[in-house]
């Protein structure tokens, strides 16, 4: 079978490139994915008993201030007017996040004005100078002071990393936003919303083109399938969005990731927590947060009123067998990544992209934006000659 471009991975990065090459240049594109579904980590599906849409790899909230990306994604889906807000359960009380004047006044049982709160936090943060932190704890205290750090950051961070913040490098956090007003909108991008008929419908529309063939359950490194690395590289241009260390058989070392474990439950009640995401800041609670999926779509009247779906989230270091979610990015990782970048130079017809291919956490709009740039700046000039 003749193809003009092979895309490894059907996440947002891979599908954006595939869609552009097929529609813009009329090229034949094959997209392979080792999973049994398209969409990468943004995939969602209705929970069978309730029909409530569940984001299978953790909650996905779309937001962007990039007008090019916004115009592009609106070709495939409409968005609801959902605005994300998060609360945190600490010491038997619920507080709004990100830390704002509401959080501060509730925590200190006070009615501070913005200036009073600013002066209070500045005084508490003076315990450590910002530039001299020896670890994450000192850095966090230098930004928000000890009381707020100990309540909202210390144990939550320890659960995320399974490591005490005193043993984590200061660079893990660069800033801890504190808002001196009552605004608790989580994102401050120009555009925000959730796909009206779900992520999977959006993703399927991107792949719905006669020139795009998607092959699922197909691993690029499996030499028994047609479009494997050995058979394709050097013959057909490849966009590779799998893990960069796997591509080079880990010869520059194994890059480290955090993964998440999810525990999903259908409960016989209409509403469990009254909000989509509740963090758990106490060290005594083993999970980091609970998602309740019905609240992502309050407009969906078809959802049952006597059942709800919740998902507890637990965080830990990933092994090679786990889903890699967040790059840990240790000094050793950064060194390995440099060696992989050098190796990539020897593969001129393979384009590494996306979260796994570049070892970077990317939000969806960033994955789509960088795929559009790669298409315009590298792939289109190269592939133009192959188009009919
Ligand atoms: P993605 O990981 O989606 O796709 C890569 C694909 O490659 C996968 O389908 C994989 O199976 C496939 N693959 C890998 N190796 C292969 C091989 N050898 N052969 C064949 N296929 C192979 N973003 C956001 O904007 N808002 C949010 O709220 C969230 N929330 C969120 C939560 C969690 C827990 C995570 C981990 C991530 C988010 N994101 C997010 C980020 C979002 O998931 C991310 O932007 C996209 O997944 C990036 O798309 P990619 O195509 O780069 O990777």
UniProtKB/TrEMBL annotation:
As its record notes, the protein acts as a catalyst of: UDP-alpha-D-galactose = UDP-alpha-D-galactofuranose
InterPro entries listed in its UniProt record: UDP-GALP_mutase (IPR004379), UDP-GalPyranose_mutase_C (IPR015899)
Residue intervals of the UDP-galactopyranose mutase C-terminal domain: 151-361
Q: Name one GO biological process term.
A: cell wall organization
Give yes or no: UniProt keyword Isomerase.
yes
**Family the UniProt entry places it in:** Belongs to the UDP-galactopyranose/dTDP-fucopyranose mutase family.
What is the name listed in the Swiss-Prot or TrEMBL entry for this protein?
A: UDP-galactopyranose mutase
Per the UniProt record, the source organism is Cryobacterium arcticum
